[in-house]
Amino acid sequence: GREGGVLLYITTHMSVQHQWYLRNCWGEVFRHSALLRASDVVVYANPPAAERERTLGVLERTFAEQKLIVHIANDNKTDNAMADKHTGAMWALWYALEKKLFDGYDWIIRANPDVIVRDDAFLVDSIWHDPKATALLIDCMKNYVDRRGRMQVHTDFFALKRDLLKPRRMGMKLEQNAELSFTEYLDVKGGIEGLRWISGAEHEGSSCRAGAGKPLRLTPVTHVHDLNDTDGKLKNVAWIREGTCPIPFAGAAATGPAPY
């Protein structure tokens, strides 16, 4: 990795929804964020075998201006756990650590293709201007705890200093959802020095997705599921138009190189 740089780690099963966002919104993400535009990109993908060549084409076009490395999941039971979103979210993280994909980078930003940073001010403030920041997380439960008193943080988007990402502990078992497993893995309840909660990105309602249930302009990160697959096709949602991203990005398009 690029010493001191930022790595954008994207994990995907290349659903129709994920592909739509890659084609239509990620170009706008990079136009509005110099930080993300300057990041290297690693993608861990688990598409159906028949879709692998197409997957590479979509990714190469989306990240044509970034240094891109793509890892395609192998055909075995462990890798195919990506088909289960809860197991897959943690497996993709452990896979990257085992393969040393994060080595050499200062910050790791993890996102699904349908998680869109519409206002990167929180990233810029912490990664570029706050030397004490070590973690940018989004809470998943009101007051960060569930009914049993256990904290939960989002896995669909986070940013962490590389040093916080440790190999899987021996004997660590997966919880019933990815959020609980990830929270235990980071030992969030025990306290993370330099933790910054991403203000405004908490969800409303029962969906544990970044900014879910809020008007898009009120959250810096969005994870809209209105495009969920229906028989392999996109839902008939009025704002879905090929070639147009409906996310209201904050500010003007970013210009100039990243300051590193």
Task: Report on this structure.
By secondary structure, this protein is an alpha/beta fold. 24% of the residues lie in helices and 17% in strands. The chain has 7 helices and 9 strands, in the order E-H-H-H-E-H-E-H-E-E-H-E-E-H-E-E. The protein has helices spanning 16-24, 26-32, 34-37, 52-62, 85-98, 121-128, 178-186, and strands at residues 5-12, 40-45, 68-72, 105-111, 115-117, 135-137, 157-161, 195-197, 221-223. The protein has a 7-stranded mixed sheet with strand order 3-2-1-4-7-6-8, sandwiched between helices. A two-stranded antiparallel sheet has the order 5-9. Strand 2, helix 4 (52-62) and strand 3 form a beta-alpha-beta unit. Helix 5 packs parallel to helix 7. The longest helix has 14 residues, at 85-98. It is globular. Residues 76-83 and 143-147 have low confidence and may be disordered.
